[in-house]
């Protein structure tokens, strides 16, 4: 898999499937490999941020930009694992929220994600109000440290709040 001009072996496909927790089928991995080869313009087996962000869907997605900022670039196995975070079949990836990689998600980690998602559409004060309200509704405080199970449907408390996020921030909705 080091050189994109080589073909994937069955072993490579199974290794990549294991690496991404079987989020993709073998045929999907073959298709992703073909797309990876298209993005890897110099054929070095590695795609840069510039090459990756040449895909319009990822160039405009603030979460993909946030994740990619944590990386220097991607080989094929990392490319598939990266894309698995966006799959509806994937489990929630804590690293999307845990920016410092300490295994805990803080208020400021979540605020960073909310900032990436909302851009200039709401103020910093409104973002903090929204996040504080969501955490309080789930039984957390601003200084709580969250772990992956706090986000999971089965064991997690972070579910839909009684008020919309926009109502909390005082932003009119349709």
From TrEMBL:
Domain EF-hand: 27-62, 95-120
GO molecular function: calcium ion binding
Pfam families, sorted: EF-hand_5 (PF13202)
Record-linked PROSITE patterns: EF_HAND_1 (PS00018), EF_HAND_2 (PS50222)
Keyword Calcium: yes
Top-level taxon in the UniProt lineage: Eukaryota
InterPro entries, sorted: EF-hand-dom_pair (IPR011992), EF_Hand_1_Ca_BS (IPR018247), EF_hand_dom (IPR002048)
UniProt entry tagged with the keyword Calcium: yes
Keyword tags: Calcium
Entry protein name: EF-hand domain-containing protein
């Amino acid at each position: 898999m080091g050189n994109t001009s080589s073909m994937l072996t069955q072993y490579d496909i199974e290794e990549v499937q294991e690496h991404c927790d079987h989020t993709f089928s073998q045929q999907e991995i073959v298709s992703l490999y073909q797309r990876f080869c298209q993005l890897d313009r110099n054929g070095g087996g590695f795609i840069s941020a510039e090459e990756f962000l040449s895909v319009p869907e990822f160039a405009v997605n603030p979460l993909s930009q946030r994740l990619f900022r944590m990386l220097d670039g991607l080989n094929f196995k990392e490319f598939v694992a990266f894309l698995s975070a966006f799959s509806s079949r994937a489990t929630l990836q804590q690293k999307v929220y845990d920016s410092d990689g300490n295994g805990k998600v803080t208020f400021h980690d979540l605020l960073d994600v909310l900032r990436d998602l909302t851009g200039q559409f709401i103020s910093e004060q409104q973002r903090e109000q929204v996040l504080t309200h969501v955490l309080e509704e789930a039984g957390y405080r601003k200084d709580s440290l969250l772990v992956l199970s706090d986000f999971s449907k089965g064991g997690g408390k972070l579910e839909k709040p009684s008020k919309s996020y926009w109502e909390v921030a005082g932003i009119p909705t349709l």
